[in-house]
Amino acid sequence: MKDRTYVALAYMTGVLPIKKHSSTSALNMFDEYTMLNDIIYGRYFGFTEEEVKELCEKQSKISFKEISDCYNGYINEDGDRIYNPRSVVKALQNGKCIIYWTNTGAMDEVKEYLKYNTMEVREDVIKMVSGYDVDIIINEEFRAGQEPPKTKTEIYSAMIILGFLSYYNGYLKIPNKELMREFEKALQDESFGYVSEIIKNSRSMLKATVSQETEKVAQILYDIHNSEIPILQYNDENSLSCIVTLAYLSARDTYRVEREEKNRKRFCRFYISSYEKSRFAIYS
Asked: What domain of life (predicted)?
């Protein structure tokens, strides 16, 4: 495109920043704006919270809260909450909040990072699936070359730019329920060993809890606690919280799972409430 008189302007979207090999590179004429660094055009991409509220008010099938839980999670340079526009539109058109994330080869690359636990990325993702943010400094100048990203910050930078993760004020997280499901599916691969077993058996854990089979619930948690899982540190509150979250992962399909609610009488590690009338809670 360079030096072509018939090209007035070229606009490229949905690609990683292009790596310039030198100042004389044939691709040195681009101005690049990414999810990590865009103070000019960021306001024009995605739906803002106010825009989503206005769209929800025009129909009665889906509430704003449902949309927010599923497709919220991104934050722009100004600190405004940004929603996945395609998923919001699809949900409002179909009257149902499900996964509308477009399957791409990029997710396969993410699965490879998790599979081989490159730079211990898998442990961080398990924590994020469990609801924790990861404190890390990200390389905002990441550029895509012919070689795949090698360092942890390069891997996370690529995942942020591709929209799989959200990054704000030094903290990394999985943006919303829609993408949480994608990571949950990735962790069910047999290559993840006991972690995949826990997730696959989480439906049995939920069933035993609803049926008040306390001995079975206790046995499942005991077995998990005594297994050899990289993220599990004995008597560590955060790692135990991750394990319980994985054990009840399937509960997210039909229940609202909330962690660490404090009150005057007790400290509630997990509270799992039904979207319908029935409900139960797990207290420490």
From this structure: Bacteria
Alpha carbons 144 and 102: distance in angstroms, whole number: 21
In sequence order, what are the residues at sequence separation of 6 or more whose Cβ sits closer than 8 angstroms to the Cβ of residue 247? Answer: 198, 201, 202, 205, 220, 221, 224
79 plus 116 within the same structural domain: no
Domain CATH for 140: 1.10.10
Q: Is the dihedral of CA 271, 228, 126, 207 positive or negative?
A: negative
Task: Encode pLDDT of 252-275 as tens digits.
Answer: 777 777 776 555 555 556 777 776
**Exposed/middle/buried for 249, CB within 10 Å: 0-12, 13-18, 19+?**
buried
256 and 280 in contact (C-beta within 8 Å)? no
Q: Please state, in angstroms and as integers, the Cα–Cα distance from residue 97 to each residue in 109, 154, 208, following that order.
A: 26, 32, 27
Rounded to two decimals, the pTM is 0.74
Is 31 a domain residue?
no
